[in-house]
Amino acid sequence: MRARDLALAVAVAAIWGINFVVIDIGLDHFPPLLFSALRFGLAAFPAVLLVGRPQVPWRWVAAVALTLGVTKFSLLFAGMAGGMPAGLSSLVLQSQAVFTMLFAVLFLRERPRAVQIAGLALAAAGVLLVATRMGAALPAFLLVIGAAVAWGLANVATRQAAPPDSLRFMVWVSALSTGPLLVLSLIVDGPAADLAALRAINVEAVLALLYIALISTLAGFAGWGFLLRRYGAATVAPFSMLVPFFGMASAAVFLGERVHTVDVIGGTLVVGGVLLGLVRTRPAVLANVAP
Question: Is the peptide bond before 191 cis (omega within 30 degrees of 0)?
Answer without folding.
Answer: no
